[in-house]
Amino acid sequence: MSKILIVMSAADAWERTDGSLYPTGYWAEELAAPHEKFVAAGFQVDFASPGGVLQPLDQHSADPAIAGPNCAHHVRHAEKALREFGPLLKLDEVDVDDYVAVVLPGGHGPVVDLHQDPDLGRLLTAANSSDKLIGAVCHGPAALLSAIDSDGRWVFAGREMTAFTDEEEQLFGTADGAPWLLATRLREMGAKHSGGPAYLQYTVTDGNLFTGQNPASSGAMADAMIASLTR
User: Fold this and answer.
1) Disulfide check for 48: which of 22, 89, 167, 203 has CB 3.0–4.6 Å away?
2) Which residues form the DJ-1/PfpI domain (predicted)?
3) Rounded Cα–Cα distance for residues 42 and 125 (Å)
């Protein structure tokens, strides 16, 4: 059975420019929707994070007023999947050769730790060099920033992608006081970032790279990856 690796952040708080801490965690739909689709398609899914730390649930993703009417299902599925998997793999012990794809869900955590995690950078660089599929959704594309080659260049510079937009960050109320904004940083680093209407499904595929703009794009991103892996 082919395996897919979901890499989670280990962060539970996002430090703001004023020094305050904003609670964060994994976004239920961004973890649950791809996991559910991958398993239904016959893939085994493993979870890993820096140090094997299990990140808490972002409580915003359990609020129907924010995350939509299906959020309770996503929360139940994510919690069940993580509970049944058991202790997360430690990112520095993962062998990327064991997997056909690497997936990076969001929540704000990736802008705290994964964007500069050297173990993830090495893993993503190796995955990209082997043309393995790489998926990232919402704030997950921040994790792509960790992939810097031996010459100091960003591995994904020049690639087409999407991510949580600056407009969405403003609408969510977290742009003011953010140390940096994801979509802007990706463009500054050389990504060809594009976005669709706020909070509506929008995905971009560029070769082996699959990205989704926001939680609503999680399932569509996974569908595109599955289609590529099973064709």
Assistant:
1) 89
2) 29-226
3) 26
Q: Which residues contact 29 (CB under 8 A, 6 or more apart)?
A: 61, 67, 68, 70, 71, 74, 215, 216, 218
Distance CA 225, CA 205 (A): 9
Cβ contact 41:205 at 8 Å: no
Residue 137 pLDDT > 90: yes
Location of structure tokens 């793999």: 89
In the predicted model, what is the mean pLDDT of residues 168-173? 98
Quote the radius of gyration of the chain (alpha carbons, Å). 16
Cα–Cα distance between 27 and 19 in angstroms, integer? 23
Taking the model in full, what pTM does it have?
A: 0.97
**Rounded distance between C-alpha atoms, residue 145 and residue 203, angstroms:** 19
Burial label, 1 (beta-carbon count in 10 A; 0-12, 13-18, 19+): exposed
CA distance 77 to 28: 8
Q: pLDDT > 70: what percent of the chain?
A: 100
Helix orientation angle between 71-85 and 28-40, rounded to the nearest 10 degrees: 70
Instruction: Give the domain ranges of the chain.
Output: 3-230
108 — phi, psi (to 5°)? Answer: -75, -10
Q: Could you read off the pLDDT of 30-76 as tens digits, one per residue? A: 999 999 999 999 999 999 999 999 999 999 999 999 999 999 999 99
Pairing of strands 44-49, 89-90: parallel
Average pLDDT value over all residues in the chain: 98
131 with 137: CB under 8 angstroms? Answer: no
